[in-house]
Amino acid sequence: MHKSIIRYLLTAFTLLTCFAVQAQKDSLILVNGNTIVGEIKMMNKGVLQIETPYSDSDFKIEIEGIKELYSNVRFMFTTTNGSRYTGSFGTNEQGLIIIRDDQKGEVVTTLQDIVFINSLDDGFLSRLYASVDLGYSLTKANNQQQFNLNFRMGYLADLWSLDGYYNSLISTQTDVEKIQRNDGGASYRYFLPKDWYLSADITFLSNTEQDLELRTNGKLGLGKYLIHTNQAYWGFNGGLSYNNEDFKLTASDASDSLYGRKSFEGFLRTEVNLYDIGDLNLFTNITAYPSFTEQGRWRADFRFDAKYDDFLIDDFYIRAGFTLNYDNQPAAVGKEVDYIFTTGFGWEL
Questions:
Q1: Residues 89, 158 within the same domain
Q2: Domain count, the chain
Q3: Per-residue H/E/C for 197-266
Q4: Are residues 183 and 38 in the same domain?
Q5: At residue 83, what are phi and psi to the nearest 5 degrees?
Q6: Strand locations in 92-191, DSSP E?
C-alpha cells in the first residue's frame, strides 16, 4: 500500500517536473558561461528581470552580464532610435539580437540598443509599478515634528503610459503655525515613432508658504527623447497650459480672505534620468510657464530626486528629494519661492 502511494507520488512529481521544464520558454547565457532558464518578464533601465521555477524571487541581471538570450514568445521592444517592434527574439553567432517582428520580419540589433522589453502575454500586474516612501523627524526643541509621504504609481501599455503621484509634507512646532504642502497629479503619454510622444497632464499643488489654497494646472503637449538608452534618458516637452489658482490671504494682504486667478500659459519642460551609476538613480526636471494672459508673469517648477537601491532588503530603497516652486508675481507679497527637502525610506513594486 505504502509502496503504491510512493510510486504514484513519484510519477506525479516526474510529470510536474516535465511540465515545468516545458513551461520554461526563455533562456539567458551569461558572460561567465552560466545559463538561466525561466520566463523573461521585462527589461528596463539596463536591468533584465527573469522568473525561474527554482527561486522564490525573480532574478535581476544587468545587461552587461548577459551574452545571449532566447525566447519563442512575443514581446514588445523599444530601441534607442525610438523604433518599436513586436515578436520573439534570439541571438545569432555574431552575438547580435534577431527580433522576429510580426509585420517587419527579422530585425537585427544589439542588446545595448534595446531600451525596453516587456512580455505581451503577462497580465495587468506585470505592467504596473509603484513606490512609496515615508520620512519622519522629531526635534526636542520647541517640539518640532515633520512628516513626509511620497507615493508614485504607473502603468505601461504597448503604445501608452499612465503615471500618478502624491506628495505630502506636514511640519508642526510649538507656538508656530502649522506648515503644510501637498502636491499630486497624473500624466498620460501616447508614444509616436522616433521617440516622439503626445502628453496630457493634470497637477495639483497646495502650500502654506505661498498662501496657495489650491493650484490646478492642466497641460497638453508634444515631447521627444533626445537621448534614450540603457544608461540614461533626456527629453523635452512643450505645449499649452491652463492654470486655476485659489489663494487664502491674510487681512494685511487683501480685503477678501480668498483670491482666485485664472490664466493661459505655455510650458517648456526638460528632464534627465541617470540610472546606470551603480545602485544610484538620479532624476531631475525643470518646467517654465510663461503666461499669455497675465503680462510679465512666469512660473517655474524644479525637482531633483536621488534614490539608492542597494539596501539590505530587496525592493526597499532610500530616497532624498528637493522641490522648488517659483512665481515672479505671487498673490502674497514676498512669497515668490517655496521649496522643500525631504528624505525617506521606501518600497517599490
A1: no
A2: 2
A3: EEEEEEEEEEECCCCEEEEEEEEEEEEEEEEECCCEEEEEEEEEEEEEEEEECCCCCCCCCEEEEEEEEE
A4: no
A5: -75, 150
A6: 97-101, 105-109, 114-119, 128-139, 144-156, 160-173, 176-191
| Domain stops at, among 120, 139, 160 | 120
pLDDT by residue (tens digit) across 269-284? 999 999 877 778 899 9
Residue tagged 485664472 (cell numbers): 262
What residue type is assigned to position 67 of the chain? Answer: K
Q: What is the pLDDT of residues 221-233, one digit of tens each?
A: 999 999 988 888 9
Residues 133 and 255 in one domain: yes
Residue 175 phi, psi dihedral angles, 5° rounding = 65, 20
Q: How far apart are CA 63 and CA 88, in angstroms?
A: 18
In DSSP terms, 76 is beta-bridged to 86, 118
Shared domain for 106 and 245, answered yes or no, is no
Q: Which residue has the cell 527554482?
A: 54
Domain housing 264 = 126-348
Domain boundary among 91, 120, 149: 120
Q: HSE (CB half, 13 Å, CA atoms) of 188?
A: 6
Identity of the amino acid at 258: L
The maximal CA–CA distance of the chain, rounded, in angstroms, is: 93
Among 14-23, 74-83, 225-234, the least confident range: 14-23
Q: Which of 228, 343, 221, 333 is nearest to 287 (CA)?
A: 221
Dist. CA 130–CA 140, nearest whole Å: 34
Q: Which residue type occupies 254?
A: A
* Domain match, 47 and 134 both: no
Judge contact between 151 and 324, C-beta under 8 A.
no
